Amino acid sequence: MTAAIVLLAALGVALAVVRLRRRYLVVTVQGESMLPAYRPGERVLVRRTPPESLRPGQVVVLSGFAHARPGERRREARQQLGTGPGWIIKRVAAVPGDPIPRDTVPALRDAPGTRVPAGHLVVLGDNPDHSLDSRQSGYLTADRLFGVVLRKIDQAMSAPSR
């Protein structure tokens, strides 16, 4: 009887860990695109979030740019990536239904319509001189979203990196 209880408890803990790992991710900031808010090497806790719950001003993690576009230096494109499968960290500037921010996003100056279309986001780095973002690429599709940054993780409290 006691062994069955221990087994059930262990199974419950294992399921909780799996669920947490699917909902949360720790990402290491690389590059200078989010200075001064986030510095290279800092780690942030990210919660998986559906695109429809985003608001302008939130910091998000999205799948990144696969490679530099023509005219960009590859080093600058690589600096935009976080750890994991090419994550980037950016601040949401506009969500579907918001006015297109033509004055701050040159790539969208000639975009059709007056509102950000459904399924698209406008994201910007806090440090424009070192950020590959919507200023150059225009809209990013919302399906690239992983989640919202909840907080920085204190390096002293986090587990050692491998």
What would you say about this model in short?
Helices cover 20% and strands 25% of the residues. The protein has helices at residues 2-23, 74-79, 134-137; strands at 24-28, 43-48, 59-63, 87-94, 120-124, 140-141, 145-153.
Question: Overview of this structure, please?
Answer:
This protein has 162 residues and is α+β, with helices and mostly antiparallel strands. The protein has 3 helices and 7 strands; from the N terminus they run αβββαββαββ. The protein has a 7-stranded antiparallel sheet with strand order 1-2-7-3-4-5-6. The protein starts with a helix and ends in a 9-residue tail after the last strand. About 10% of the residues have low confidence.
